[in-house]
Amino acid sequence: MALTSSNIFPLGTLAPAFKLKDTNSNYNYSFEYLKGPKGTLVIFMCNHCPFVLHALTEVIMIANDYRVQGLGVIAISSNDAAKSPEDSPELMTEFAFQNKIDFPYLFDESQEVAKAFNAESTPDFYLFDNQDRLFYHGQLDDSRPNNGIPLSGSDLRSAIDALIYNRSLNEIQKPSIGCGIKWK
Q1: DSSP of 11-27, one letter per residue?
Q2: 84-98, pLDDT tens digit by residue?
Q3: pTM of the complete model
Q4: 67: CB partners within 8 A, 6+ apart
């Protein structure tokens, strides 16, 4: 497994419009429909990446903690299911059920949404304000599989708190590191 860092996506960039199928409900949803009144967190993830699996419990806690405060949370898998069968829509549904993911988990079959976001790795976190402008693009925290640093979600939680409570955010944002998206 090669480590892949997230690509640059300039702060202030408008969220790309999309409409994708939710593997839990089988409905097609747009960013516009799923966004939250305070802002929206878009997470590129997948079912098999050790970095996603390592962070998943904290990601779910963050979603649960902040959705009640008006944050929309959207997960997207853009992996090519032919190259990565464990990331097929059917297994995404099973993965979401087993891990109690109750926010939308969308499948980007064409990979056009990942390209529009300039996404490169999983997990990758994009936090948009209530005007749909990118407020934060970076890591969850400094914890990685086997590095001994406990999960805290500190970087992402700080960014969400700054967004919700109208505080300034440190311009230095560490890129997310994980598995590369499996491109067609």
Answers
A1: TTPBPPP-EEEETTT--
A2: 999 999 999 999 999
A3: 0.95
A4: 36, 73, 103
